[in-house]
Design a protein that fits this description.
about 250 residues, mainly alpha, MetI-like fold
């Protein structure tokens, strides 16, 4: 009975099926040469083989994870600071700096960073972190400012210090909105990380960049499928976490 119920739940779990599809696609692409050869008969090499797709997936996730971690830390701390009395005067400046970081295209940030730090993952990390700060900052500020004033007054009436009220009241209530900002930031970075291959970083964008430079549509399709499916799986995972956070809130 329990096994049947578990199997039924597993069969209805969209996240599990999407993750399995991503794994199967990564493992099956190297063996899909007959399929792509039939779809693109003019291509001599219809399947990307310069690096294993599993390795590219891991490097893509590592780059997105590191840059998103920096963006979340900077955006969250900046959002908390500008909602405190001591930092409210700096809110317009922080908003302008964060918006400026997302106004510049990542390609432009990469072009500026490469002469300073060289080729590889570091300029891509800088560009993605700058690009991911704004959604986190906005989510943090919106969540903290949405806490009802009567609840904040009640916290002060109970003798809570400003920091106790922040961590015990405001942060838990702001968590769903903050998580939405983090979700947007990570999803944006998954797609944007594909262009990091233009500066030597190995990501799922490598087949796309090689395909564009060599007029190989099959490579472009293979990279795009993996990037798109990775974004779908990540978005589903955030959706599940968001439901749990909203239920607890």
């Amino acid at each position: 009975m329990l096994l049947a119920r578990a199997a039924k739940v597993f069969a209805r779990d969209r996240l599990t099926w999407a993750a399995l599809a991503l794994v199967v696609l990564v493992l099956a692409l190297p063996a899909s040469e007959p399929l792509f050869a039939s779809l693109f008969p003019a291509l001599e090499r219809p399947v990307y083989r310069q690096e294993p797709f599993a390795q590219l997936l891991w490097q893509h996730c590592a780059l997105v994870g590191a840059s998103s971690l920096v963006a979340v830390l900077v955006g969250s701390l900046a959002g908390i600071w500008v909602t405190r009395p001591a930092g409210q005067a700096f809110k317009p400046m922080v908003d302008a700096l964060a918006a400026m970081g997302q106004t510049f295209p990542p390609v432009a940030v990469l072009a500026v960073a490469v002469p300073l730090v060289g080729f590889g993952e570091l300029p891509a990390l800088i560009a993605l972190a700058l690009y991911g700060v704004l959604p986190v900052l906005r989510g943090t500020v919106a969540g903290l400012q949405a806490v009802p004033e009567p609840m904040q007054q009640a916290a002060r009436g109970l003798g809570m210090t400003p920091w106790q009220a922040l961590w015990q009241l405001q942060v838990p209530l702001a968590l769903p909105v903050w998580l939405a900002g983090v979700r947007s930031s990570v999803i944006i970075n998954i797609g944007t990380a594909a262009i990091a291959s233009t500066v030597g970083a190995k990501t799922l964008g490598s087949p796309i960049i090689v395909g564009l430079s060599g007029f190989n549509t099959a490579y472009i399709l293979q990279g795009a499928l993996l990037v798109g499916l990775l974004a779908v799986v990540t978005d589903m995972a955030f959706e599940r976490v968001a439901r749990r956070v909203a239920w607890r809130a």
